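During the reporting period the student researcher (J.K.) took over the structure-prediction task from the postdoctoral fellow and processed the backlog of single-chain submissions. One of the processed entries is reproduced below for the supervisory committee.
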Amino acid sequence: MYKKKPFFIVLEGIERCVKSFQSKKLLINLKKKNIKTLLTREPGGTKSAELIRNLILKDYFNKENKEKFDKYTDTLLYLAARNEHIKNKIKPALKKK
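J.K. obtained the following structure tokens:
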């Protein structure tokens, strides 16, 4: 007998290229086949990562604020959100299969 390994699917693309729509369609199809699934997003996916995501978006979309995050600060915030997401959501889910 072989062990079924969990798999990890990532959809990547630019803003507004229907990643959310496609991921929801995939989720529905996998559930129809009785495959356990977890849908999440990045940046975000956990409470702490969502806080970081909101900070990034607030800075990006606030047109009145002339002082924006430096590109390195922005990158570090994305990496912090990713770290929280991986440690607190993705790894535990893969361990549970």
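The committee noted the following: The CA atoms of residues 15 and 21 lie 12 Å apart.
J.K. will present the remaining backlog at the next meeting.
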